User: What shape does this take?
Amino acid sequence: MMNANNLAELLQTLCPMFLLVNEDGKVTRVGSTLQKLRPEKPMEGQSFLDIFELLRPRAVTTVSGLMSQAGTKLQLRFHDAPRTALKGLIAPLPKGKGAVINLSFGISILDAVRDYALTSADFSGTDLAIELLYLVEAKSAAMEASRSLNLRLQGAMLAAEEKAFTDTLTGLKNRRAMDVLLDHMISSKSPFALMHLDLDFFKSVNDQFGHAAGDYVLQQAARIMGEETRGDDTVARVGGDEFVIIYKGLTDEGVLSAIASRLIDRLREPMMFDNVSCQVSASIGTALSTQFPSLKPAEILHAADLALYAAKRNGRSRHCLYSQLVDHSHR
Assistant: This one.
């Protein structure tokens, strides 16, 4: 006949959440997985009913009552925290020598795996819990892979969007970005100023010193314009040596003229490239959104263009306001 040690070894293989209890209801052997739930509190030697609270059937409060529940599904939980819920089944041993009580987590298995850091090694190889754990792990891995893929796709979309709206040479916004912003500013009825800036004598730099020198001048000009604008303003390169600056919420012509003067002064300073001095200047035309009763993008761009060409006609390296042209035409 199988002795208690052999029986315990067999149960450990088949159902590592077992307990062997004697006729007095005291635990004589405990499965490794079940003991893992209370690593600091050995269960052997304790009364089963001191460790667990029986929830179903409720009437069972004694060892004899417990032993009479052979074949009945038990619902129980630990007396102490964490009060993990368990299911159980009692199989009496021959000659009233006690019983085998096999426990499982039931639907609380996922919480138990998390709370006690259990792995597949803590369950019998034929336990359906293993299949569930694999499914959960596979789902978690799939969700993580999906989340990672979504993040990469979002990043790629943002990068592509940014690239589509960025001038690669200067890092400024491009014509497309300016068009989108202009539409937004007009639809939101936000007041703004639009400054059209053109580099004078830029073609001479390209012809004399080559395109590398020209690219350098454009990059330095972009840097200067960025330094003379605020965080809410937008600088866009809209042509070879043409730039548009949109000043959000700024319609004070005195302030705008002062900014234009600083830009002109800084852009006329020589830019050294490979020991050669590249000399350009800037002509600027500015129009205000508040100057038009029913504003359209083409309308304010055209107004700034008219002011820019007036600045060029008047000798270049200067600034002209669209309002000056309107005032002049009304005289």
Notes: The mean pLDDT is 86.
